[in-house]
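BUG: 3D viewer hangs when loading the predicted structure for this chain

Environment: internal workstation, default settings.
Expected: structure renders.
Actual: progress bar stalls at 90%.

Input used:
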Amino acid sequence: MRQLHYVRVAVINKVDLVMWTKNGAETLPFVLKRISEVIPDECVNNRILVDDNSTDRTCEIAKSFGWQIVFNKGSGISDGANIALEHVESECFVSFEQDLLLSYDWWRKVPAHLSNAQVAVASGIRLPSKPTDLRKLQEYTIERYQKRERGLDSFLYGKTLDNTIYKTRVIRQLGGFPKLSIPAGADNVLAQRLQQNTFQWKVDYTVRSIHLRKGLRDELEHYYWYGTCFNILVPLLSKKHVRIKPLVLRLLFSPFRGLDIAFKKNAPQAVVIYPLLRLAILRGVLAGRKSSV
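Structure tokens produced before the viewer hung:
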């Protein structure tokens, strides 16, 4: 293990903003407008957008908001993030994804966590834009994980790359963003590497940005997609293989959990939504396992 030095940021004067995109024209105008509303212009050094061969108006829209366009020489989030990192010039930088509406209190709350020398990365959380009961379900999940101190799930929850500020020097010392053979999990593996080098990733659960979704079907597809990556991602994080039986048991008991969520959060649709999410994950895991055979 390399010895990394703590980096304290007392006052953040300027940051670079980075984003990676792929055909994001539908949401990008709202996303970029919100970023400009939340983070003052005088606090921004560079705006760097790494585009992954978009065929829509993504680049045109980004240019109209003053973002510099750089093209992804590889593909996917890991490559896009590392290309963006190559262009970062500031002591700290902030990353976004193309479908996130940044919380209005993000700039006031999240960067302040980096004043702690051990905290190298800080972020808020994100909640889906719709349906409402799905958002309440995820609020319930947040409340559960906030109370936990141990376990892989609680360690990883909320650690995403889409509303996140980093100490540039630390990320570069770690070798940049993890390059994985799957399209998900770079955030999870980065969090693990930080922990192994005695750094912290602080998640501020009070800062809640909005993940722009078209509806429940869109979210189910996301859970399925994430499930397809589990068979590779879980061994990377825990040196254990994904076991199907616990996933099946969680699915079988999911109606009871859904009922608990519905009662505690006044979200009646959670009775159906939660089992569907568990089913989507299980189907994704099985599909990922089948494709690797």
